[in-house]
Design a protein that fits this description.
This protein is mainly beta. It has a single domain, classed as Peptidase/esterase 'gauge' domain (Methylamine Dehydrogenase, Chain H, 7 Propeller), CATH 2.130.10. The protein contains two helices and 28 strands. Strand 11 and strand 12 form a beta hairpin. Helix 1 packs antiparallel against helix 2. The two termini are 19 Å apart.
Length: 340
């Protein structure tokens, strides 16, 4: 009888936990925010995050010679590290970090020259002769030799690609915009080209990212406003509508089809047809104004920049577990106790 009574109590507690978390509205924050800090206390911006949580971006400072300097960083496990400089360079702007920790980006020289760099954990930062636009997790890089001429760099092997290529994914697809203003997805494996058009007949589609499902995001610009768009392989979807929304960009899409970007200097996330401004998904007293979300990884972690205490700062957003997840964790704990 005692064992039966304990069993009934266990079932009642488990049911109560599931009922509370499944019926209550989740009013708490959906993201926790981490200030990534800076290399010198003067703020910065986060540009890219990989699936290991490593982040790259730029940290700014003024040494007193009349120039604003930008140094590239890698952030990992709470520590921001300067990845170095090159001779005659002073302004470094990373654009991507892949899952092996390789970082690509651009830098400006003291004479105004525009260059590219590549950083690897084993070699450090090196000058790169071609203008890089994107990379994948196989360390393949999409490069330009002029405005439209595009090629693939793969461990020093160069392969010509369709003109205007901008972004490359992990399954051999390239998204871009050619000199005729045609947006496309090119499949290197099948040598097939697929073109798509904007819903705004006066706009051209600028590619910002392509995921491993072949979905493309970016923005179109016309005579009235910029449209943040998703091309899902069949249709071009306008992500943001509204009479007061003139400047909209989609910056990144992960393999869960979650999209991040900026609208009128408000960072947002778009998923399952719903758009949320990220400011609304933080604690009410966070003190942050999130300006732009630049990247999102496959764990849903988001990086970008915002204003905190009057200064531009780089941020990381970590998803807060939903109530259903919490209830399963608690129920699992009860089951473990029951087995003991």
């Amino acid at each position: 009888m005692l064992i039966y009574s304990r069993y009934i109590k266990f079932v009642m507690v488990a049911v109560m936990i599931l009922m509370v978390f499944s019926t209550a509205s989740f009013a708490g924050p959906r993201y926790e925010i981490i200030d990534l800090g800076s290399l010198n206390g003067q703020g910065g911006r986060a540009a890219s995050i990989n699936n290991h949580g490593q982040i790259t971006g730029t940290s700014s400072f003024e040494p007193g010679d009349g120039r604003l300097y930008h140094h590239a960083f890698i952030w990992e496990n709470g520590v921001m590290t300067d990845i170095g400089t090159l001779p005659n360079g002073y302004s470094y702007h990373p654009i991507s970090i892949n899952d092996s920790g390789q970082i690509i980006g651009h830098y400006y020289g003291f004479e105004g020259q525009f260059n590219s760099f590549m950083y690897r954990p084993d070699t450090g930062m090196i000058h790169f002769d071609y203008r890089t636009t994107s990379q994948n997790n196989s360390n393949q890089m999409l490069c330009r030799s002029n405005l439209y001429e595009t090629f693939l760099w793969d461990n020093s092997t160069i392969t010509s690609m369709p003109e205007g290529g901008l972004m490359i994914n992990n399954v051999g697809q390239v998204a871009g915009l050619n000199s005729q203003g045609q947006a496309y997805v090119y499949d290197m494996n099948s040598d097939q080209m697929q073109y798509y058009k904007s819903s705004d007949s006066d706009g051209s589609l600028i590619t910002a990212d392509i995921n491993d499902l072949g979905q493309v995001v970016g923005y179109s610009y016309g005579h009235e406003r910029n449209h943040a768009f998703l091309y899902d392989g069949q249709n071009v979807i306008d992500l943001i509508n509204g009479p007061d929304r003139y400047s909209n960009k989609a910056n990144a899409i992960n393999n869960l089809s979650q999209i991040v970007g900026s609208s009128e200097e408000q960072a947002y996330i778009w998923q399952d047809g719903t758009l949320d401004f990220l400011d609304d998904l933080l604690d009410d007293d966070s003190g942050w104004q999130l300006i732009n979300a630049n990247d999102i990884n496959d764990h849903g972690q988001i990086v970008g920049y915002g204003i905190y205490e009057g200064q531009g700062r780089a941020f990381l957003l970590n998803p807060v577990p939903e109530p259903a997840t919490l209830s399963l964790v608690l129920l699992g704990g009860l089951l473990m106790q029951r087995r003991r």
